[in-house]
Design a protein that fits this description.
Layout (H helix, E strand, L loop, with lengths): L1 H12 L10 H29 L3 E2 L15 H23 L9 H20 L5 H19 L3 H23 L4 E2 L11 H33 L1
Antiparallel strand pairs: 1-2
Helix pairs in contact: 1-7, 2-3, 2-4, 2-7, 3-6, 3-7, 4-5, 4-7, 5-7, 6-7
Subcellular location: Endoplasmic reticulum membrane
Family: Belongs to the INSIG family.
Organism: Ceratotherium simum simum
Length: about 220
């Protein structure tokens, strides 16, 4: 009974949904699933905003969800979110630079709110031209990184994610999967990389915060043994 009593407080510190999980592979799976559904939710909300403002246009025959979004967009965004969220803490671990800046859920939620605000601004705010909007969103995105991340690995991954995501989007638009109104950067809007950069930083912060639970569980188990 004494041993059981000492385990209960430690379990509560690690969080109710993961306190009993001690296998690294299972923890990885749990974090991946959580990140996937967060990505799906954000994709539905943000893509709906873009469609309502006629920023992105899908052909009528591919509209296949109650949120008026192509059916493949949320799963793809969810998968990308899971990969990004798992990659950030992995890179931190391999570089030997654990990210400790603003490591609490309140900061993560503020980061999500700022990201949604940046995406909202891309659809709602009217500028004289796309260049002004792009420069504004670029400043906001870098400000998001500076406020909630400030790591070199986070900035580098954000830039890489923005480049790859923009390249994939260019290919999708080129092949007629969907289109952007008033494209000014080949087939897309020039501010799109800023959105991808901010999204990468946001999902990286969520992934890092979730990874902290795994570290707590492993440390608790090691202490008990």
């Amino acid at each position: 009974m004494a041993e059981g009593d000492t385990e209960s407080p430690g379990s509560k510190k690690c969080g109710p949904y993961i306190s009993s999980v001690t296998s690294r592979s299972v923890n990885l799976m749990i974090r991946g699933v959580v990140l996937f559904f967060i990505g799906v939710f954000l994709a539905l909300v943000l893509n709906l905003l873009q469609i309502q403002r006629n920023v992105t246009l899908f052909p009528p025959d591919v509209i296949a969800s109650i949120f008026s979004s192509a059916w493949w967009v949320p799963p793809c965004c969810g998968t990308a979110s899971a990969v990004i969220g798992l990659l950030y803490p992995c890179i931190d671990r391999h570089l030997g630079e654990p990210h400790k800046f603003k490591r609490e859920w309140s900061s993560v939620m503020r980061c999500v709110a700022v990201f949604v605000g940046i995406n909202h601004a891309s659809a709602k705010v009217d500028f004289d031209n796309n260049i002004q909007l792009s420069l504004t969103l670029a400043a906001l995105s870098i400000g998001l990184w500076w406020t909630f991340d400030r790591s070199r690995s986070g900035f580098g991954l954000g830039v890489g994610i923005a480049f790859l995501a923009t390249l994939v989007t260019q290919l999708l638009v080129y092949n007629g999967v969907y289109q952007y109104t008033s494209p000014d950067f080949l087939y897309v809007r020039s501010w799109l990389p800023c959105i991808f950069f901010a999204g990468g930083i946001t999902m990286g912060n969520i992934g890092r915060q979730l990874a902290m639970y795994e570290c707590k569980v492993i440390a608790e188990k090691s202490h008990q043994e």
